[in-house]
Amino acid sequence: MKDALTIHRALLERETLHEIVRLPAAIAHADELPRSLGLPAGRCLVTRVYACNDVHRGSRFLVGVIVPAGVRPPAERVRLAVGARLIRPARPDLVNTVTEYAAGLVCPLLLPESMPLLIDEETVGELPVDDVVYTATGEASTALGIRALDLFALSGAKPVDLRNGRMTGDHDPGAGPGPREIGQIAKPRAREQAAGKAAGQAAGSATSGRARLTLPR
């Protein structure tokens, strides 16, 4: 199974600034990150995983959706975004097998190429590109701190409007400074090229030996 060490090694290889944060207490789900870290929900991102049936071939696949902690996107909007016939939250055992992360603690990095990954468009607009965001690592006792732009680029997530018709959850609208452009974001079909591009952006300021951030609170 993938864990914090797997992610750390991959990001070091790409010279991407990041930090693995030790949590004060173990968590069962990434939705608990804001309370554990003492941060607004908008700074803590969760990858929700859905099982879909293809509208044409009837084949099954998983899709990931990156949203702020505590927020659940309308399933119908996710279904339309990926062109699925049916959609439902994926079973934990299926999430474990396909993503190789513990269900509920999925990191949006190092996911299989066959798995489409979406991100809430409003979340992208609300977060300044240099802000540090936190996400799960597959482990109950750690979190990943990484700049928003690096996470967006390395994940290859496709921005999608998921809040038309309101998402439910406890996202704090005041957590971000308001919409702003962040430039081009990579598409899911080219995640490895996106990783290389993001590495180039971060390499100039990466520290030698350990890629670390000074994490603002």
TrEMBL record:
Taxonomic superkingdom: Bacteria
Composition bias type Low complexity, residue spans: 195-217
Compositionally biased intervals (Basic and acidic residues): 163-173
Sequence segments annotated as region (Disordered): 163-217
Pfam family, one: tRNA_edit
Chain segments annotated as coiled-coil in the UniProt record: none
An example molecular function term from Gene Ontology annotations: aminoacyl-tRNA deacylase activity
Protein name per the record: YbaK/aminoacyl-tRNA synthetase-associated domain-containing protein
